[in-house]
Each structure stands twice: as C-alpha cells, then as structure tokens.
Amino acid sequence: MLQGLPARIADDCRVLVLGSMPGVASLQQARYYAHPRNRFWPLMGGLLGIDPQAAYEQRVSALLCAGVGLWDVIGQCRRAGSLDAAIVRGSIVANPLSARIATLPALRAIACNGAEAYRAWMRWIAPALPAGPQAPVVLALPSTSPANAAFSQARLAADWGAMSGFLRPAAESRAGRNGG
C-alpha cells in the first residue's frame, strides 16, 4: 500500500486543493507536485506570485499565506507507477477530509486537481458533507500533471483562475498570516 502525504492546511484555509494521490516523485521526495514537469508550481506562480523555483517550504508557506491548502482525496492505495488509471480501485482508502473540513470555518472552495480527484471527491467525501449555502464550492479543474498534455499552461491558467475569487485579498496575504 502506498501512503499519501500529510495535509498542508492552515486553520484559516479558504481554498483546499485536492489531488487524487501523489505520484512516485512526490512520494519519494515527500513533497506535493514534485515531478519536474508537473505544472502546479508554475501555475501558482502565475496565479499567486509564488516563485516556482523557491525552496519547497517557502512555496508551501506562500500558499498557506494566500489561504490555499494542499491534500489529496486518497490517503492510501495500491498503484504501479504514477498514473491515476493504475490505482487499484478496491485498495483505495480516502483521507478523513470530512472531519478536517469541519474545522475550517473560512473554507470557500475545494479545487480538485484533475478528473480522478474530482471523481474520488464525489464518491467518498461529498456524500458525507452537509449541503447548503455554507458548503464550499467544488471546482473540477484540469490536472496539472504532465500526463495531461492536452492542456497548455495558458489553458490551465485560465481554468485554474476560477479559484482566485475565493482567495484572501493580496494585501491581507502579504500581512504575513501563517498556519500549517
């Protein structure tokens, strides 16, 4: 069984980015979106002004300050390689997202990074959450994975721009809000 990465979520999180399950490079390095061709960090550079070449902990800290958290829907599974299509369906154990989301009063949006993250969210997490006007908006966004070659960086940026309306204002982010 593969074990996913720990959540990187501040208590004042406004947007929670959820992948399906980290790929091999991310698991080996214990870092989200570690594959050199994954476009997540360059995308966050364009959307949030985060330096995609900065040290990993600096990038994560900048995300947290902007009100963005990171985790995955799947906490454990069997999989050969990094592709979502290789996940053994009967082996999936979801992360305890419902419980964590209940502790995030500022949460406004869930940004699913790719179709598999969205499907997993809808299957294992969404049914356990209360519906209503206070429920976070769920954004089904295209994957930043290099396997999603059909999407250019510009097209990803256009689609991922949907999360910007849920983020903390830039001046508030720069004021140095922290958490983790």
Protein architecture, described:
With 180 residues, the protein is of the alpha/beta class. The protein is built from seven helices and seven strands; from the N terminus they run ββαααβββαβαβαα. The protein has helices spanning 24-29, 40-48, 56-65, 97-101, 115-125, 153-160, 170-174, and strands at 2-3, 15-19, 68-72, 74-77, 93-94, 109-113, 137-141. The protein has a four-stranded parallel sheet with strand order 3-2-6-7. The chain is globular. The relative contact order is 0.23. Mean pLDDT is 91; it is low at 173-180.
Which keywords apply here?
four-stranded parallel β-sheet, 7 helices, alpha/beta, three-stranded antiparallel β-sheet, Uracil-DNA Glycosylase, subunit E
CATH topology label: Uracil-DNA Glycosylase, subunit E
Percentage of residues in helical conformation? 25-40%
What is the averaged pLDDT score? Answer: 91
**H/E topology pattern:** EEHHHEEEHEHEHH
**How many discrete domains?**
1
> What is the topology, as strand order, of the major beta sheet?
3-2-6-7
Strand count: 7
CATH class: Alpha Beta
Number of DSSP helices?
7
Distance between the termini: 26 Å
Low-confidence stretches: 173-180
Question: Main β-sheet, in a few words?
Answer: 4 strands, parallel
